[in-house]
Amino acid sequence: FRLVKRQLLIAAMGGHDSQPLRNGRLILVCSAQPNEGKTFCSVNLALSMASETDIEVLLVDADVAKPEILSTLGLSGSMGLMDALADPSLDVEQLVIRTDVPNLSVLPAGRQTHNDTELLASSRTRALIDGLVSANPRRIVLFDSAPALAASPASVLALHVGQVLLVVRADQTSEGELREAISLVNACPHIQLMLNAVSFSGSNRKFGSYYGFGE
User: Fold this and answer.
1) With contact defined as beta carbons under 8 Å apart, do 64 and 144 qualify?
2) Long-range CB contacts (within 8 A, 24+) of 38-41
3) Residues 7-32: pLDDT tens digits?
4) Mind listing the pLDDT tens digit for each residue in 84-122?
5) Rounded CA gap, 135 and 66, in Å?
């Protein structure tokens, strides 16, 4: 996660010889199908980024149908992202939960509705996301989204973010699923893959078969 976060942070904040990506501080984490470890990766990336001295991380639970961020971190809360989208009078910053981990905050998914996709596709989403970024120039916003092939929020959020991290589970995600998932989030031009749950063989660090190819 330290290796992965460094690449994401360079793209988000820029480096000695590179400029930050447009909307690079907005990062979408998703997978092709359920049970590929995208929430596990979202939480661990958020924790790793929060250890940086000059970074603050806001982890947004955007998997509205199956929110798991609060339970994973042992937090309680109710109102969140979808409430702020449905009611413009709500101040989204008031819904952000500060954790006991320095530099890490969480925005819950909020209540489920029947028009989640329509709310996420509204102009209110762009305004809300812009507000989350502009509120703090040190803030990185990580969206833990629903699997791209299981629900539509990932494809909608890809329109607003500067980076997509697509979690791929070794020996489970098929090449066809991966290609289809990429096509659904390619509104964001900067997509990276993260290989999860790799099995190592002995001390040679062999990756085993993947997509039908040998080592």
Assistant:
1) no
2) 38/144, 38/145, 38/147, 38/167, 39/63, 39/68, 39/69, 39/72, 39/144, 40/196, 41/1, 41/165, 41/167, 41/194, 41/196
3) 999 999 987 677 889 999 999 999 99
4) 999 989 999 999 999 999 999 999 999 888 888 889 999
5) 28
DSSP 8-class letter at 74:
T
> Helix axis angle, 2-13 relative to 38-50, nearest 10°?
70
Q: Which of 3, 77, 73, 4 is nearest to 39 (CA)?
A: 73
- Provide the 3-class DSSP secondary structure of residue 58: strand
Distance CA 141, CA 139 (A): 6
Residues 6+ apart with CB under 8 A from 131: 92, 93
Closest CA to 159 of 10, 22, 12, 14: 22
Structural element, H or E, at residue 116: helix 116-120
Instruction: Say which residue the tokens 């969206």 belong to.
Output: 143
Q: Are 140 and 29 in contact (CB under 8 A)?
A: no
Taking the model in full, what pTM does it have?
0.89
Q: How many CA atoms lie within 13 A of 165 on its CB side?
A: 32
